[in-house]
Amino acid sequence: MSEGISQPDAPVTREGRAKGDLFAKFDDLIAMREGLLASGVEDPFNLVMEKVLSPTRAICNGRETILLGTYNYMGMTFDEDVIAAGKTALEEFGSGTTGSRVLNGTYQGHKECEDALKEFYGMDHAMVFSTGYQANLGIISTIAGKGDYVVLDIDSHASIYDGCAMGKAEIVPFRHNDIEALEKRLKRIPADAGVLVVLEGVYSMLGDVAPLKEMVRICKENGAMVLVDEAHSMGFIGQNGRGVAEEQGVLDDVDFVIGTFSKSVGTVGGFCVSNHPDFEIMRLVCRPYVFTASLPPSVVATAATSIRKLMHGSNKRAHLWENSKRLHGGLKGLGFELGTEEPQSAIVAVIMPDLTKGAQMWEALLREGLYVNLARPPATPANMTLLRCSLCAEHSDEEVGTILQMFENAGKAVGII
Amino acid sequence: MDRAEIDRRIRDIIAPFNKNGVTITDQTTFQGDLEFDSLTVMDFVATIEDEFDIIISMNQQAEIETYGQLVDAVKKLVDSE
Predict the structure, then answer these.
(1) pLDDT tens-digit readout, A162-196
(2) What domains can be seen in chain B, in order of their start residue?
(3) B44 CA: distance to closest CA in chain A (Å)
(4) Which of B57, B63, B64, B77 best tests the A interface by mutation, with the highest count of A CBs <10 A?
(5) Rg of chain A (C-alpha set)
(6) Is the pTM of this model over 0.90?
(7) Chain A residues whose beta carbon lies within 8 Å of the beta carbon of residue B64
C-alpha cells in the first residue's frame, strides 16, 4: 500500500542498461514517452516559446499562438508600471542578491513586497519565499512536527505533499472536497495532538473550488489550525481578490494563506501571510526560507507593483469571469466533457478519453495556433488526461471566439466531438 | 477485539475491491497480487478507517505491504483506542 503504485507487474528493462544504473527505475516512464513520440506527435512537455508578444500571445515553432495555459490570470506580465519598476530596481540594486534573506539577501524591495502583501490581505505578517513551491514546502514541514498531524485533501498539489514528506508529522489524507470525510478524521485524532489542515482555494487540475466555509468552521470546532493555498485564486476570486476564503467569508479564521507570484502577480516567488502573533519566528526556523538565495531585486519590485495594482483590479476580474463563463459554456456546447459542471474559476479543464487522444488533441490545437496544458497521470485526479485551459483577463472577446473555433476544428479532426 | 474478528471484518470489506477474485492470505500483497492503484487504496483505507473508527496515516500505510501486516496494524490501532 505504499506510494509506488504506478509500477506494472513486469517492469520493462531497457536494453543495454549497465548493472547498477540508477536510471533503471525510470524505464517505464521512458518507454511511455518514447511510445507517445513514436506516434508522431510533438513533445507536449518540451515546447519552446521563441518570442512572447503579450500575456496572451507568443511565437511557438514559428507560429503565432494564443496562450491559454499560462496561469497568467490577470495579464500583469507586460503591465507598463510593473516593467518600469523592474527596470529601475535592476539598475539601482543590481541583478541579484547573492544571499539568504537572513544574511545579505534582504533589500528594501523585499520589505516593500512584504508590506504590499500585508496590505493586500489585511494581515499582520508576510513572508516572501523564492518560489511558491518553497512556501508550501517550508511552512508545512516547519510548523507540523513529530507527533502533530497534517490533514490534507487527497488532490493536494505536489508542493504540499513534499512539505508533508519533508516534515515528521503524521499525514492523513481525505477524499477530495469531502466535508464529512474531513470531519471524521479530525474527530479521530488524539485530543492532545497538534493538527494542521491543508486546503486549496481552487484545485488546479479541474479548476474546482473548495467548500471552505464549512471546512474552516469544522477545523476551528475541532481545534485545528488551517492553511489555505490560494495560488490559483489570488487577484481574481473574492471582492478584493484575496481568494476563495474571502469569497466564502472565512478569511479571518484561516491561520495561514499560501500564495505565489507566478500566476496572477506575473513573476516568480511565493509567500505566506498570517495573523499569528509569533509568525516572525518562521524566518529563523524555516529551512527552505533560510538556506536559499532571496529573489532578485527586479523580481520583488515587479511583484510589489503588481500586487498593489491587483488591489484595484475589479474591472479586470469582471472581464475574466466573463471569459471563463463563455469558454466553459462554449466548450460544453461543442460537446466536450469538462472538469466542472459550472465554471468555478479561471481554469477550464477538458477531459480527454486517454493520453494518446489527449496528446493528439494538444498537437492539433497547437497547429491551429492555441497553447493549452496537457496534464496526465499521476499529476491528475482519477488518472485522467486533461487539456487544462487557464484564461487571462487580457483575452479579448474576439480571442475567446477564436479559441472556441480552434477547439471545434481540432476536436473534429481528432474525432473527440 | 481479537485478531480473528478483525481479520473477518477486513475480509468482508476487501471483497468488493478484490476484482480478480484473488485468494486472500496473510502474504497477499496489495500492490502486486491485488493490483490496487492509488485511488483504490484511498477508498479501501477510508472504508477500514470508518469500520474501526481509526486513522491509518500515510506514514503507517507506507509500512503495510501485505494483508497480514494490515490486519496486525489495525489490531494495534484498535487496541490502543
Answers:
(1) 999 999 999 999 999 999 999 999 999 999 999 99
(2) 3-80 (1.10.1200.10)
(3) 10
(4) B57
(5) 22
(6) yes
(7) 1-2
**Contact flag A172-B55 (C-beta cutoff 8 Å):** yes
Closest CA in chain A for residue B58: A171
ipTM above 0.90 for this complex: yes
Cβ pair A159, A136 in contact under 8 A: yes
Residues in chain B: 81
* Contact flag B59-A171 (C-beta cutoff 8 Å): yes
Longest dimension (CA), chain B: 34
Which residue in chain A has the smallest CA separation from B70? A1
CB pairs under 8 A between A and B: 58
User: Residue A386: beta bridge partners?
Assistant: A351, A375
Pairwise CB contact (< 8 Å): A188 & B55: yes
In the 3-class helix/strand/coil scheme, how is A303-346 assigned residue by residue?
HHHHHHHHCCCHHHHHHHHHHHHHHHHHHHHHCCCECCCCCCCC
Q: Please answer whether residues B24 and B44 qualify as being in contact, where contact means their C-beta atoms are separated by less than 8 angstroms.
A: no
| pLDDT tens, position by position, A261-309 | 999 999 999 999 999 999 999 999 999 999 999 999 999 999 999 999 9
Pick the closest to residue A372 from A404, A341, A398, A415 (CA basis): A404
* Option in B49, B54, B64 nearest A1 (CB): B64
Asked if A327 and A120 touch (Cβ cutoff 8 Å), the reply is no
Residue with cell 477550464: A348
Number of helical (H) and strand (E) elements in chain B, helices listed first: 4, 0
- For A211-248, b where at least 16 C-beta lie within 10 A, e where not — what string? ebbebbebbbebebbbbbbbbbbbbbbbebbbbbbbbb
